[in-house]
Specification:
The protein is α+β, with helices and mostly antiparallel strands. The protein has eight helices and five strands, in the order H-H-E-E-H-H-E-H-E-E-H-H-H. The protein has a five-stranded antiparallel sheet with strand order 2-1-5-4-3, sandwiched between helices. It is elongated.
Length: 258
């Protein structure tokens, strides 16, 4: 085994904090290096999407990618079992009798593969996918190779989860900033409506909110329209009508609230 290539691979898989991090390139590095470092002719990665459904994320060859896709579409195969149990799965002599997944075995054999090892991409109890190693021979990988393969899968999993956490934190910060910006716009619109219609700030907000709901618009969009348009009109609020003059309310001129 190329010790220098192995060390370089671990460095590449652990470096996910760069600004131009590319998750697809990262996963292709995992599959390509796994196939080169281990006694495997090809490798593939399947990852769970936000709904928990598996997707083919990368493969070192077209054949490996097609077999990974075959497993997902037919809901059978070692990579699915590995993902669901969080445990390694080994299938030897795919052309032999008594296969656990006969359709998968036939498809893999037709693609030129004789054995498969599926390794979980897992951090503690969280399984994000599986790394599948395809061999043209019928023998499984050695114990030392399986340990290295699992280590590569583990490092890649940590890198993926770290990158997801960074993106989640950035998204949360953006959402928080957007909420704060929206609050400023709404406060400005409340002040504009209160000034134009002679209302309190609470009454102005009630009017703004009711108008947004009645017209099926976002509150921020209505508030921004009030600020940008000097002639924006809303219906007069009920609070503007004096109960003692309810009988003559129909003769009152509607207030221009925005």
């Amino acid at each position: 085994m190329d010790a220098e290539l192995l060390a370089d691979t671990f460095v590449a898989l652990s470096d996910t904090m760069v600004d131009d991090f590319d998750v697809i390139d990262f996963l292709h590095t995992l599959t390509d290096r796994s196939a080169r470092l281990l006694s495997a002719s090809a490798a593939g990665v399947v990852l769970a999407d936000p709904r928990g459904e598996l997707r083919v994320a990368a493969a070192s060859s077209d054949e490996a990618g097609l077999i990974e896709l075959f497993q997902i579409q037919n809901d059978q195969g070692p990579c699915l079992a590995c993902f669901r149990t969080g445990q390694p799965v080994t299938v030897t002599d795919l052309a032999g009798p008594g296969q656990r997944w006969p359709r998968f075995a036939a498809a893999a054999t037709s693609a030129g593969f004789g054995a498969v090892n599926a390794l979980p991409m897992r951090l503690r109890d969280q399984v994000v996918g599986a790394l599948t190693l395809f061999s043209t021979g019928t023998a499984p990988l050695s114990e030392s190779e399986l340990r290295i393969g699992q280590a590569l899968a583990d490092v890649a999993t940590i890198g993926l989860l770290q990158e997801r956490n960074v993106r989640r934190a950035e998204t949360l910060a953006e959402q928080l900033q957007a909420a704060l910006n929206s609050r400023v716009v709404i406060e400005q619109a409340k002040g504009r409506i209160a000034e134009r219609a002679g209302l309190t700030m609470d009454q102005a907000f009630t009017l703004l909110r009711q108008h947004a709901r009645n017209t099926n618009q976002r509150l921020t969009d209505v508030a921004r329209f009030v600020i940008d348009s000097p002639t924006a009109d809303f219906p007069a609020p009920a609070a503007r009508v004096n109960p003692r003059q309810a009988g003559t309310a129909g003769n009152q001129r509607p207030a221009r609230s925005a």
